[in-house]
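Follow-up to my earlier ticket, as requested here are the two runs.
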Amino acid sequence: MRTVTPLRNYAAATKSEIIAVITTANVGHLSRSQADEVQELLMNKLRMFIREHKPPPEERPVFQGKPTYIDGSLQVGCTNMEAMKWLTTAVDGVKLSSDVCLKVCKPSEMVRRTRCGILIPEQASAKDIGESLQYPPRKR
Protein backbone atom coordinates (compact mmCIF):
# COMPACT_ATOMS: atom_id res chain seq x y z
CA MET A 1 0.00 0.00 0.00
CA ARG A 2 1.38 3.39 -0.96
CA THR A 3 0.60 6.57 0.95
CA VAL A 4 0.45 9.85 -0.89
CA THR A 5 1.01 13.23 0.72
CA PRO A 6 -1.87 15.53 -0.21
CA LEU A 7 -0.90 18.51 -2.34
CA ARG A 8 -1.06 21.90 -0.67
CA ASN A 9 -1.14 25.21 -2.40
CA TYR A 10 0.97 28.18 -1.32
CA ALA A 11 -1.89 29.83 0.59
CA ALA A 12 -2.57 26.68 2.62
CA ALA A 13 1.12 26.13 3.34
CA THR A 14 1.68 29.70 4.56
CA LYS A 15 -1.60 30.03 6.45
CA SER A 16 -0.79 31.15 9.94
CA GLU A 17 -2.39 29.15 12.69
CA ILE A 18 -3.28 30.63 16.03
CA ILE A 19 -0.95 29.36 18.75
CA ALA A 20 -2.11 29.53 22.35
CA VAL A 21 0.51 29.21 25.08
CA ILE A 22 -0.61 27.91 28.47
CA THR A 23 1.73 28.62 31.36
CA THR A 24 1.64 29.67 35.01
CA ALA A 25 0.45 33.18 35.76
CA ASN A 26 3.09 34.10 38.33
CA VAL A 27 6.31 32.33 37.29
CA GLY A 28 5.66 31.60 33.62
CA HIS A 29 6.95 28.03 33.78
CA LEU A 30 5.00 24.75 33.82
CA SER A 31 6.64 21.48 34.73
CA ARG A 32 6.13 18.47 32.46
CA SER A 33 3.80 16.82 35.01
CA GLN A 34 1.74 20.03 35.36
CA ALA A 35 1.44 20.26 31.55
CA ASP A 36 0.18 16.66 31.42
CA GLU A 37 -2.35 17.45 34.16
CA VAL A 38 -3.53 20.59 32.31
CA GLN A 39 -3.93 18.62 29.10
CA GLU A 40 -6.02 15.94 30.83
CA LEU A 41 -8.24 18.50 32.59
CA LEU A 42 -8.81 20.44 29.36
CA MET A 43 -9.78 17.27 27.48
CA ASN A 44 -12.36 16.51 30.17
CA LYS A 45 -13.70 20.08 29.97
CA LEU A 46 -13.97 19.88 26.18
CA ARG A 47 -15.88 16.59 26.34
CA MET A 48 -18.22 18.02 28.98
CA PHE A 49 -18.75 21.24 26.96
CA ILE A 50 -19.73 19.33 23.82
CA ARG A 51 -21.96 16.93 25.77
CA GLU A 52 -23.80 19.71 27.64
CA HIS A 53 -24.05 22.48 25.04
CA LYS A 54 -24.23 20.38 21.86
CA PRO A 55 -22.96 23.20 19.64
CA PRO A 56 -23.24 22.79 15.86
CA PRO A 57 -19.98 21.61 14.24
CA GLU A 58 -19.08 25.06 12.88
CA GLU A 59 -19.25 26.58 16.39
CA ARG A 60 -17.22 23.90 18.16
CA PRO A 61 -13.68 24.72 19.23
CA VAL A 62 -11.32 22.95 16.85
CA PHE A 63 -7.66 22.47 17.64
CA GLN A 64 -4.85 21.66 15.26
CA GLY A 65 -2.16 19.10 15.92
CA LYS A 66 -1.03 17.72 19.23
CA PRO A 67 -0.36 20.03 22.20
CA THR A 68 3.38 20.43 22.63
CA TYR A 69 5.39 21.00 25.80
CA ILE A 70 8.11 23.53 24.97
CA ASP A 71 10.37 25.39 27.40
CA GLY A 72 8.00 25.38 30.38
CA SER A 73 4.75 25.95 28.50
CA LEU A 74 2.05 23.96 26.76
CA GLN A 75 1.49 25.18 23.19
CA VAL A 76 -1.85 24.44 21.54
CA GLY A 77 -2.70 25.12 17.89
CA CYS A 78 -6.16 26.68 17.40
CA THR A 79 -7.82 26.69 13.98
CA ASN A 80 -10.10 29.65 14.72
CA MET A 81 -10.74 32.37 17.27
CA GLU A 82 -13.65 30.40 18.80
CA ALA A 83 -11.15 27.76 19.88
CA MET A 84 -8.88 30.43 21.37
CA LYS A 85 -11.80 32.01 23.27
CA TRP A 86 -12.99 28.64 24.56
CA LEU A 87 -9.45 27.73 25.64
CA THR A 88 -8.99 31.03 27.49
CA THR A 89 -12.21 30.61 29.48
CA ALA A 90 -11.56 26.91 30.09
CA VAL A 91 -8.05 27.54 31.44
CA ASP A 92 -9.43 30.15 33.86
CA GLY A 93 -11.54 27.41 35.44
CA VAL A 94 -8.78 24.79 35.66
CA LYS A 95 -7.49 24.05 39.14
CA LEU A 96 -4.27 22.08 39.35
CA SER A 97 -3.48 19.86 42.31
CA SER A 98 -0.62 22.23 43.22
CA ASP A 99 -2.95 25.32 43.36
CA VAL A 100 -1.09 27.03 40.52
CA CYS A 101 -2.90 29.76 38.57
CA LEU A 102 -2.70 29.43 34.80
CA LYS A 103 -2.91 31.88 31.93
CA VAL A 104 -3.24 31.74 28.15
CA CYS A 105 -1.14 34.06 26.01
CA LYS A 106 0.38 34.36 22.56
CA PRO A 107 3.92 33.13 21.90
CA SER A 108 5.09 36.73 21.44
CA GLU A 109 3.97 37.54 25.00
CA MET A 110 6.13 34.83 26.55
CA VAL A 111 9.19 35.92 28.48
CA ARG A 112 12.29 34.56 26.80
CA ARG A 113 14.53 32.63 29.13
CA THR A 114 18.16 33.66 29.08
CA ARG A 115 20.70 30.94 28.55
CA CYS A 116 24.37 31.46 29.07
CA GLY A 117 27.51 29.46 28.56
CA ILE A 118 30.97 29.59 30.02
CA LEU A 119 34.06 29.26 27.89
CA ILE A 120 36.77 27.47 29.82
CA PRO A 121 40.34 27.74 28.53
CA GLU A 122 42.13 24.47 27.93
CA GLN A 123 44.98 25.24 30.31
CA ALA A 124 42.71 26.08 33.28
CA SER A 125 42.78 23.70 36.23
CA ALA A 126 39.71 22.61 38.14
CA LYS A 127 40.82 24.71 41.13
CA ASP A 128 41.14 27.87 38.98
CA ILE A 129 37.70 27.29 37.48
CA GLY A 130 36.13 26.76 40.91
CA GLU A 131 37.69 29.92 42.30
CA SER A 132 36.60 32.02 39.32
CA LEU A 133 32.97 30.86 39.59
CA GLN A 134 32.60 31.77 43.27
CA TYR A 135 30.87 35.01 44.11
CA PRO A 136 32.07 36.93 46.05
CA PRO A 137 35.65 35.69 45.80
CA ARG A 138 37.06 34.12 48.92
CA LYS A 139 39.69 36.04 50.82
CA ARG A 140 42.91 34.11 51.29
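Run two:
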Amino acid sequence: MVVFRYQNNVPRLVPTLVMASLVILTALKARLMDVSLVWICHNVDQDTLPYFKPIERLRRAALMRLAHAVLVLDPAFLPYMPRRDARAVSFGAKRDGSVSAENMVAIRAFADRFDRVVLIAGQDKGKYKAFARIPEVVARFAEAGLEAGVITAGMAGDRVFDPATEGRVLRIVEKNIRESALAGQVDFIYRENADISMPYTVYAAATASIPVLTRRGNILADILEREGIGLCLDGDITQPRQAYDFSGFLKRHSWDSLSRILTEQGIEV
Protein backbone atom coordinates (compact mmCIF):
# COMPACT_ATOMS: atom_id res chain seq x y z
CA MET A 1 0.00 0.00 0.00
CA VAL A 2 1.17 3.53 -0.82
CA VAL A 3 -0.08 6.34 1.40
CA PHE A 4 0.30 10.04 0.59
CA ARG A 5 -0.16 12.62 3.31
CA TYR A 6 1.54 16.00 3.26
CA GLN A 7 2.95 17.11 -0.10
CA ASN A 8 3.26 20.84 0.55
CA ASN A 9 5.20 22.83 -2.01
CA VAL A 10 8.31 24.78 -1.10
CA PRO A 11 9.00 28.38 -2.24
CA ARG A 12 11.41 27.22 -4.97
CA LEU A 13 10.33 26.16 -8.45
CA VAL A 14 12.75 23.29 -9.19
CA PRO A 15 12.17 21.34 -5.93
CA THR A 16 8.43 21.87 -6.36
CA LEU A 17 8.52 20.45 -9.89
CA VAL A 18 10.63 17.48 -8.78
CA MET A 19 8.33 16.70 -5.85
CA ALA A 20 5.18 16.96 -7.95
CA SER A 21 6.70 14.72 -10.63
CA LEU A 22 7.68 12.10 -8.06
CA VAL A 23 4.21 12.11 -6.52
CA ILE A 24 2.46 11.71 -9.87
CA LEU A 25 4.89 9.05 -11.14
CA THR A 26 4.61 7.09 -7.89
CA ALA A 27 0.82 7.24 -8.07
CA LEU A 28 0.83 6.06 -11.70
CA LYS A 29 3.23 3.22 -10.88
CA ALA A 30 1.05 2.11 -7.96
CA ARG A 31 -2.00 1.95 -10.21
CA LEU A 32 -0.13 0.06 -12.94
CA MET A 33 1.22 -2.45 -10.40
CA ASP A 34 -2.20 -2.79 -8.75
CA VAL A 35 -0.87 -1.50 -5.43
CA SER A 36 -3.41 0.18 -3.16
CA LEU A 37 -3.03 3.97 -3.25
CA VAL A 38 -4.43 6.10 -0.42
CA TRP A 39 -4.42 9.88 -0.10
CA ILE A 40 -5.04 11.31 3.36
CA CYS A 41 -5.99 14.83 2.36
CA HIS A 42 -5.13 16.98 5.38
CA ASN A 43 -5.81 20.29 3.62
CA VAL A 44 -8.92 19.99 1.52
CA ASP A 45 -8.90 23.25 -0.42
CA GLN A 46 -5.19 24.09 -0.77
CA ASP A 47 -1.73 23.37 0.58
CA THR A 48 -0.77 24.81 3.96
CA LEU A 49 1.46 27.38 2.26
CA PRO A 50 0.37 27.51 -1.38
CA TYR A 51 3.29 28.20 -3.70
CA PHE A 52 3.13 27.68 -7.49
CA LYS A 53 -0.59 27.04 -7.52
CA PRO A 54 -0.81 25.52 -11.05
CA ILE A 55 1.67 22.81 -10.01
CA GLU A 56 -0.19 22.30 -6.76
CA ARG A 57 -3.51 21.90 -8.59
CA LEU A 58 -1.99 19.39 -11.03
CA ARG A 59 -0.51 17.26 -8.23
CA ARG A 60 -3.70 17.32 -6.19
CA ALA A 61 -5.88 16.54 -9.23
CA ALA A 62 -3.68 13.54 -10.07
CA LEU A 63 -4.01 12.12 -6.56
CA MET A 64 -7.74 12.83 -6.52
CA ARG A 65 -8.14 10.84 -9.74
CA LEU A 66 -5.67 8.00 -9.15
CA ALA A 67 -6.10 7.18 -5.45
CA HIS A 68 -8.14 4.10 -4.56
CA ALA A 69 -9.24 5.88 -1.39
CA VAL A 70 -9.31 9.58 -0.55
CA LEU A 71 -9.66 10.39 3.13
CA VAL A 72 -10.30 13.65 4.97
CA LEU A 73 -10.01 14.39 8.68
CA ASP A 74 -13.56 15.38 9.54
CA PRO A 75 -17.03 14.69 8.10
CA ALA A 76 -17.56 18.46 7.76
CA PHE A 77 -14.99 18.44 4.94
CA LEU A 78 -16.75 15.88 2.74
CA PRO A 79 -19.02 18.39 0.93
CA TYR A 80 -15.89 20.20 -0.29
CA MET A 81 -14.35 17.09 -1.88
CA PRO A 82 -14.63 16.42 -5.64
CA ARG A 83 -14.59 12.69 -4.89
CA ARG A 84 -18.06 11.62 -3.80
CA ASP A 85 -16.63 8.40 -2.33
CA ALA A 86 -14.24 10.23 0.03
CA ARG A 87 -14.43 9.06 3.65
CA ALA A 88 -13.62 10.72 6.96
CA VAL A 89 -10.99 9.40 9.38
CA SER A 90 -9.42 11.12 12.37
CA PHE A 91 -6.42 11.60 14.59
CA GLY A 92 -6.57 10.48 18.23
CA ALA A 93 -5.39 11.39 21.70
CA LYS A 94 -2.01 13.14 22.00
CA ARG A 95 0.46 11.34 24.24
CA ASP A 96 3.79 13.03 23.50
CA GLY A 97 5.30 16.46 24.12
CA SER A 98 6.86 18.18 27.11
CA VAL A 99 7.12 21.43 29.06
CA SER A 100 10.47 22.38 30.56
CA ALA A 101 10.76 23.01 34.30
CA GLU A 102 11.84 26.59 33.60
CA ASN A 103 8.76 27.24 31.47
CA MET A 104 6.46 25.65 34.05
CA VAL A 105 7.72 28.06 36.71
CA ALA A 106 7.11 31.01 34.39
CA ILE A 107 3.66 29.74 33.39
CA ARG A 108 2.49 29.24 36.97
CA ALA A 109 3.62 32.73 37.97
CA PHE A 110 1.94 34.19 34.88
CA ALA A 111 -1.32 32.30 35.41
CA ASP A 112 -1.62 33.59 38.98
CA ARG A 113 -2.01 37.14 37.61
CA PHE A 114 -5.13 36.49 35.52
CA ASP A 115 -8.71 35.25 35.73
CA ARG A 116 -8.32 33.25 32.51
CA VAL A 117 -5.28 32.04 30.59
CA VAL A 118 -5.31 31.23 26.87
CA LEU A 119 -2.63 29.16 25.13
CA ILE A 120 -1.69 29.70 21.48
CA ALA A 121 0.88 27.36 19.95
CA GLY A 122 2.16 26.80 16.42
CA GLN A 123 3.08 28.97 13.47
CA ASP A 124 2.39 32.63 12.79
CA LYS A 125 2.14 32.79 9.00
CA GLY A 126 0.02 31.75 6.06
CA LYS A 127 -3.24 30.10 7.07
CA TYR A 128 -2.50 30.32 10.79
CA LYS A 129 -4.45 33.28 12.22
CA ALA A 130 -4.40 32.67 15.98
CA PHE A 131 -1.53 34.97 16.95
CA ALA A 132 -3.05 37.90 15.08
CA ARG A 133 -6.20 37.52 17.19
CA ILE A 134 -4.51 38.04 20.57
CA PRO A 135 -5.79 41.63 21.09
CA GLU A 136 -9.30 40.51 20.12
CA VAL A 137 -9.15 37.55 22.53
CA VAL A 138 -8.03 39.79 25.42
CA ALA A 139 -10.76 42.32 24.60
CA ARG A 140 -13.46 39.64 24.49
CA PHE A 141 -12.61 38.42 27.99
CA ALA A 142 -12.56 42.01 29.22
CA GLU A 143 -16.11 42.41 27.89
CA ALA A 144 -17.08 39.46 30.09
CA GLY A 145 -15.43 41.11 33.10
CA LEU A 146 -12.40 38.79 33.06
CA GLU A 147 -8.70 39.59 32.98
CA ALA A 148 -7.07 37.33 30.40
CA GLY A 149 -3.43 36.46 29.79
CA VAL A 150 -2.10 34.72 26.68
CA ILE A 151 0.77 32.22 26.57
CA THR A 152 2.37 31.85 23.14
CA ALA A 153 4.42 28.75 22.43
CA GLY A 154 5.55 28.95 18.85
CA MET A 155 6.57 31.47 16.26
CA ALA A 156 5.06 34.74 17.52
CA GLY A 157 8.35 36.17 18.72
CA ASP A 158 8.42 38.94 16.11
CA ARG A 159 4.80 40.03 16.46
CA VAL A 160 4.54 43.14 18.61
CA PHE A 161 1.31 44.38 20.18
CA ASP A 162 0.33 47.58 21.91
CA PRO A 163 1.86 48.02 25.40
CA ALA A 164 -1.33 47.05 27.24
CA THR A 165 -1.59 43.78 25.30
CA GLU A 166 2.14 43.05 25.58
CA GLY A 167 1.75 43.08 29.36
CA ARG A 168 -0.67 40.19 29.03
CA VAL A 169 1.50 37.97 26.83
CA LEU A 170 4.03 35.37 27.98
CA ARG A 171 6.28 34.01 25.23
CA ILE A 172 7.85 30.60 25.75
CA VAL A 173 9.71 28.22 23.45
CA GLU A 174 8.59 24.58 23.26
CA LYS A 175 9.06 22.55 20.07
CA ASN A 176 6.31 20.10 20.98
CA ILE A 177 4.35 21.36 23.95
CA ARG A 178 2.46 18.89 26.11
CA GLU A 179 -0.87 20.59 26.58
CA SER A 180 -2.01 18.13 29.24
CA ALA A 181 0.82 19.32 31.50
CA LEU A 182 -0.82 22.76 31.50
CA ALA A 183 -4.37 21.70 32.36
CA GLY A 184 -4.14 23.37 35.76
CA GLN A 185 -2.87 26.67 34.38
CA VAL A 186 -4.54 27.07 30.98
CA ASP A 187 -8.29 27.64 30.59
CA PHE A 188 -8.56 27.74 26.78
CA ILE A 189 -6.51 26.97 23.68
CA TYR A 190 -7.13 29.33 20.79
CA ARG A 191 -6.91 28.07 17.21
CA GLU A 192 -7.99 29.52 13.87
CA ASN A 193 -7.06 28.42 10.37
CA ALA A 194 -7.98 30.10 7.09
CA ASP A 195 -8.38 26.84 5.18
CA ILE A 196 -10.39 23.63 5.35
CA SER A 197 -8.25 21.49 7.63
CA MET A 198 -8.35 19.84 11.04
CA PRO A 199 -5.63 21.05 13.43
CA TYR A 200 -4.07 18.41 15.65
CA THR A 201 -4.37 21.06 18.37
CA VAL A 202 -8.02 20.02 18.73
CA TYR A 203 -7.01 16.48 19.75
CA ALA A 204 -4.26 17.77 22.03
CA ALA A 205 -6.75 20.08 23.74
CA ALA A 206 -9.32 17.30 24.20
CA THR A 207 -6.62 15.03 25.66
CA ALA A 208 -5.82 17.78 28.17
CA SER A 209 -9.53 18.52 28.82
CA ILE A 210 -8.99 22.13 27.74
CA PRO A 211 -11.69 23.73 25.55
CA VAL A 212 -10.71 25.24 22.21
CA LEU A 213 -11.64 28.80 21.31
CA THR A 214 -11.98 30.06 17.77
CA ARG A 215 -13.57 32.84 15.77
CA ARG A 216 -16.93 32.31 14.11
CA GLY A 217 -16.74 32.07 10.34
CA ASN A 218 -14.11 29.33 9.95
CA ILE A 219 -14.98 25.66 9.64
CA LEU A 220 -13.38 24.80 12.97
CA ALA A 221 -16.19 26.73 14.71
CA ASP A 222 -18.76 24.25 13.38
CA ILE A 223 -16.66 21.27 14.48
CA LEU A 224 -16.13 22.57 18.02
CA GLU A 225 -19.82 23.23 18.55
CA ARG A 226 -20.88 19.92 16.98
CA GLU A 227 -18.47 17.91 19.15
CA GLY A 228 -18.95 19.92 22.34
CA ILE A 229 -15.24 20.55 22.88
CA GLY A 230 -15.02 24.31 22.50
CA LEU A 231 -16.80 27.45 21.46
CA CYS A 232 -16.54 30.70 19.54
CA LEU A 233 -15.36 33.96 20.99
CA ASP A 234 -18.91 35.29 20.91
CA GLY A 235 -20.13 32.35 23.01
CA ASP A 236 -20.35 31.90 26.78
CA ILE A 237 -16.68 31.98 27.70
CA THR A 238 -17.56 31.77 31.40
CA GLN A 239 -19.00 28.24 31.31
CA PRO A 240 -17.17 25.56 33.38
CA ARG A 241 -15.16 22.72 31.87
CA GLN A 242 -17.77 20.18 32.92
CA ALA A 243 -19.94 21.54 30.10
CA TYR A 244 -17.63 20.05 27.45
CA ASP A 245 -17.50 16.48 26.09
CA PHE A 246 -13.78 15.78 25.84
CA SER A 247 -13.96 12.07 26.67
CA GLY A 248 -16.81 11.53 24.23
CA PHE A 249 -14.88 13.26 21.47
CA LEU A 250 -11.84 11.03 22.02
CA LYS A 251 -14.07 7.94 21.99
CA ARG A 252 -15.64 9.03 18.71
CA HIS A 253 -12.27 9.95 17.16
CA SER A 254 -9.35 7.54 17.48
CA TRP A 255 -6.22 6.51 15.63
CA ASP A 256 -7.74 3.17 14.58
CA SER A 257 -10.32 4.91 12.37
CA LEU A 258 -7.89 4.77 9.42
CA SER A 259 -7.43 1.00 9.51
CA ARG A 260 -11.17 0.48 10.01
CA ILE A 261 -12.15 2.60 6.99
CA LEU A 262 -9.52 1.00 4.75
CA THR A 263 -10.66 -2.47 5.77
CA GLU A 264 -14.25 -1.51 4.94
CA GLN A 265 -13.08 -0.45 1.48
CA GLY A 266 -11.23 -3.74 0.92
CA ILE A 267 -7.75 -2.24 1.17
CA GLU A 268 -5.21 -4.33 3.07
CA VAL A 269 -3.54 -2.45 5.93
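The only thing I checked on run two: The chain has a mean pLDDT of 90. Let me know what else you need.
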